[in-house]
Amino acid sequence: MIGIVFKTLLAAAFVASYQAAATTTTPFVQLGPLTEEARDAALAPLPGIKFREGPAVFQRPSKREPKDRLKKTKNYSNLHSHDGKLSGRLSATRRLGAAQRTHGGAGYENITAANAYGTQYGLNVTFGDQRLLLDLDTGSSDTWAFYAGTNCTNAFGEVVESRFCKFGPRYGGNFTHGAIAHEHLYVEYGDGESVEGPLGYMDLTVGGFRVRNQTVGLANETVWQGNNISSGVLGLAYPALTNAFYGPKGREYPYYAMQYSPVFSTMVDQGLVDDFFSVAINRPTENASAGAIGFGGVPEGLAGVDYDTTGQADIIVEGLMLIAAVFKFQANVANDIIAASDYSFYTIIPDGWYFGSSTDDKKRPYIVDTGTTLIYLPTCKSLSPLLCPPLVLAQAINNMFYPPAVYSFMNGGFLTTCDAVTPRVAVVIDGTPFYLNPEDLLFRSIPDEVTGLCMTAFNDGATGPFILGDVFLKNVLAVFDIGQNVLQFASRIHY
What we know:
With 495 residues, the protein is mainly beta. The protein contains five helices and 32 strands.
């Protein structure tokens, strides 16, 4: 999903730096901060290549007071719940009436339920002059749609009948403001899905706001597992996760990457909204609202919000630090050297977890992602429980179900009986426990066709990145503040 890949250019630079270090008086490894003179001396043998030192791998959450982001807005978008599989699209490149507004405005879009499952969520976006339902995804940054020229391909790159991809309605036009020459979109998702196609400029309407000349993609080829409802993806993460590349398909390397402004960043840049948005996902029932997203405010009339139970966490820059000679490379979970020194995912570090009478206070990074259904936790996949550490979080919480949930390699999740008793579980953020409604912890309405068992909400996250998906987001009002790079939460268990 997110392996660190060293391309030829990076490898060559690494070797050159090693050879240079062996023939210079500059120390191979220097402890403590580097002076500018030492850094310049170390990097001098690499003409034409410029490095910058990224921030710390993990930035500790601060206790600064955020701006008041809980102002209400009548402008929001309803969310729509799709019938379909549990969304494993671990979002971010891994692996849901138009009026020009003045600055400081606020908009919303409702989320409307199409079924009782609540496994995928989307909202209506006007592409040019055509209204489409796009998957809402805070774990990726690209916005794109299927169109007349979209081919359905299988995992081997062979074109197959479109019914296998289950496309929703397709966009019927072209780029209203022209295509972008010599650039293309290529996105790979963690569950094996991928999208490739041209990029261009389009006017979009999102939450009542007209976003002008937005960069979007149209899918030429896609490996997709759709639902016959949604027509693409609306990505709301940071610009570092955009997937534009210079040149033809096949050049999807970091040194061909062409970063651009995604939809919400453009909305802020054009003065349409303040620099934050809020998401409230409901447990959908048939013909009922599946929640709402507010741009520059919090949707009015949200049921069940407990403004006395709140917490905040800084969004961190997450990466793996590699030290070679006396300079640092960083590669983050997006498999992109550049993104490692920029904000990319909405990643936070909770204080820990409460489950039953147990606690886990290990500090780990979690991506907050509307494009993923489940909660992905550390786990151990050994066939023998005796070979696993005494407390692996995914197993520990799943053991609290009665009867205990057991990992199924065939289903890719933890299964138990559909009438199992669920534990009491909370994720602790900023010292506040955010409890999860027992109704969300077991997918009782989607039994496995072979075993008759049901999947729990806590899945295999291996060694990371870990994810707080829709199961968590159904229990909070979440504010994504890109101005201050902080996430705020208010409890929302019962509604």
